[in-house]
């Protein structure tokens, strides 16, 4: 399990030696990468991010890491002088914990792998050993056994081949995640296989090796029975590990803590840690990318609302904190101010501005795309001078839409997600595949899921699972667990799919009959 | 609420207007009609003939017929199980100049309520 570790003497730059392995981590503050066409690549100015609250550190880390890209060895002395007093305790804990986590989990992963492979090897060599040992040890006393044994040899070899392919398919898949606890079913299966093979060896050792049994056919049949039983264990493994979870039993509601975006997923009987894995895998493709710039406004609004109130204690120096805060809340609620008005007009104005810029952008892109024409194969030989590759074509038309695009991205606060290089690449790809301007623009008009952006923008791939139940427990109705990463957390609520009672009703198609009902009024 | 009103006998003298003899009211209802749309009936499955309108100053008003009355008999003919057209025919026989109706109406207050609601 994760260990809480405090800053215990790791110096700042030694932790950066891990940087090469995990480029994703440190780029959290990388709104200033040099590839960003906004030109914020090399600026040292501070971006204030309310959620992180560490502007000074952002400043330093940007500078040090960019220098470090070239030659960090020479500049370490310069780093320590300024950075030591601007690191906060939280950041230090995070850095050292990241380092420790990576070391610990690698060991655990390789340990599991080696145990499993060792066991697998043992399992495969056992039947072969059973068959080969008697001829090696006491060939003279062995009864000859003709076609029956040969038939059994063939069946053993094919069954072993099938077992080999099945085990490779089921167990030796690339592990896609590190989980905190061991998988219970896998461990149980390994134990079962181990006990099984050990008991077979015991029996073999006592009854056959010691007593030098001469009935070779019996021995071969014993080996065949072992292989059959192994195939059945493999079947059991498929059922337990794969098939049982397929039928959906629970619906998980996943809510992101920063902006409330939520999604629902259906799962079967899984342990909490595996359910967390499924949620995270779907997070990267379903949730829009986390944008810290969109969150800063609400806190300031609330702070401004409460700002003008002060509590004066007239009755003497009593330190009634709860009474004071209650009084403040009540006064703020009663206070008649116009912050809601401001919000409304501000949002309306923002909408209008965004729409206007979007209109300009769409027009600019459509005009730009008009200039590009695809050359047919016959025409390609005619004008070799002007023929361009897709990349060159993209670079040719990009300047006409660059300004409009940049202004739109600024208005929707997405400018740090797209670098000029990525936009050019996307444009070249769209031109190559004959996409319309609208198809090209879709990526920029609204925020997409995290997978759509470069890997550096993914921010964190390290998550922590916070749950008050053991994470190897199965899912149950009402469980709530939290998946926390550096910037936000995902709150997962488990609900059971209700038991549905479905009954049938037969309606004769001929029974659909209608009549006209009137209400007339007649004068007499 | 008021006591229930006993059936009334109303005698209407038809008025000659050109070629026609008119009575000065309108009827609704009948066994071929939809009783649930009748605003005057207490029981919404009642398929009887109801007075839906009484014209001002007409013979029916003079004789005392009121809106919402249910017509039970016309000159001895039963009107509780007739179609709308049959009812009309029985009321507009050219050979009769006087029709004697047997009508029931709900209690006064209910009649007022119903006429206000409809």
From TrEMBL, chain A:
Species: Jaculus jaculus
Compositionally biased residues, Low complexity: 1-15
Family in the record: Belongs to the Vang family.
Domain of life: Eukaryota
Span list, region Disordered: 1-73
Keyword Cytoplasm belongs to the record: no
Record's GO cellular component terms: extracellular region; lateral plasma membrane
Any Gene Ontology biological process: pigmentation
Main location: membrane
Name of the protein this chain belongs to: Vang-like protein
Membrane topology category: Multi-pass membrane protein
Subcellular location: Cell membrane
Keywords tagged on the record: Cell membrane, Membrane, Transmembrane, Transmembrane helix
Transmembrane regions: 110-132, 152-171, 183-204, 219-241
Pfam family for this entry, one: Strabismus
From TrEMBL, chain B:
SMART domains: PDZ
PDZ domain: residues covered: 9-106
Keyword Acetylation (UniProt): yes
UniProt keyword list: Acetylation, Cell membrane, Cytoplasm, Membrane, Nucleus, Phosphoprotein, Wnt signaling pathway
GO cellular component, one term: adherens junction
CDD domains linked: PDZ_TAX1BP3-like
InterPro entries per record: PDZ (IPR001478), PDZ_sf (IPR036034), Synaptic_Scaffolding_LAP-MAGUK (IPR050614)
GO molecular function terms attached to this record: protein kinase binding
GO biological process terms on file: cell-cell adhesion; establishment or maintenance of epithelial cell apical/basal polarity; neurotransmitter receptor transport postsynaptic membrane to endosome; neurotransmitter receptor transport, endosome to postsynaptic membrane; receptor clustering; regulation of signal transduction; Wnt signaling pathway
Entry membrane topology: Peripheral membrane protein
PROSITE patterns: PDZ
Annotated Pfam families: PDZ (PF00595)
Name by which UniProt lists this protein: Tax1-binding protein 3
Annotated organism of origin: Jaculus jaculus
Gene symbol of the encoding locus: Tax1bp3
